[in-house]
Amino acid sequence: MEWKKQVGIFSLSIVISLLPCVFACSNAGPASQNSTVTSPSLVTIKDIFDGKADNKRVKIVGQYLGWAPCDVKKNQTVMLTRSDWVLSDGHRCIFVTGGIPKLMNPVQNSGKKLCIIADVHKVEGRYILFFRHECVIPAPKE
């Protein structure tokens, strides 16, 4: 009977410790106008290769090339897994890991314009994007 009390107290302490997260997560709606939350900066593959986005979450627009080859000798990128896919700006390419965007097929959607939010990381001196989610393609500046 004593062990049941200890387990019950332990379970209650876990629930109490998680309450702040539950309330914070349930109230995490759209950012208010006074919020200091900023969206990721729009960068290019060139910006990434120039070291301007190291260890940052970024927004990037490019052509989805799926599993097309990317010349790692010409580009400063690295493939981590066999399921990594390629994003290109027409001149350079970079590998993206962490899943494939919805509605994209690694073989059939090659060349389709795509906007993603991703984290920039450097592995063995070469860059790779860790895919987070898709985003709306920004309107062209006038």
Order of helices and strands: HEHEEEEE
Look at the structure and give the mean pLDDT: 78
Count of helices? Answer: 2
- How many E strands? 6
The appropriate CATH architecture of the domain at 41-134 is Beta Barrel
Radius of gyration of CA atoms, rounded to a whole number: 21 Å
Residue share in helix: 10-25%
How would a crystallographer describe the biggest sheet?
5 strands, mixed, barrel
CATH homologous superfamily title of the domain at 41-134:
Nucleic acid-binding proteins
Low-confidence stretches: 6-35
Summarize the structure in words.
The protein has helices spanning 2-26, 45-49, and strands at 41-43, 57-66, 85-88, 93-97, 112-123, 126-134. The protein is of the alpha/beta class and 142 residues long. It has a 5-stranded mixed β-barrel. The longest helix is centred in the N-terminal third of the chain and has 25 residues, at 2-26. It is globular, with a radius of gyration of 21 Å.
TL;DR?
With 142 residues, the protein is an alpha/beta fold. It has 2 helices and 6 strands, in the order H-E-H-E-E-E-E-E.
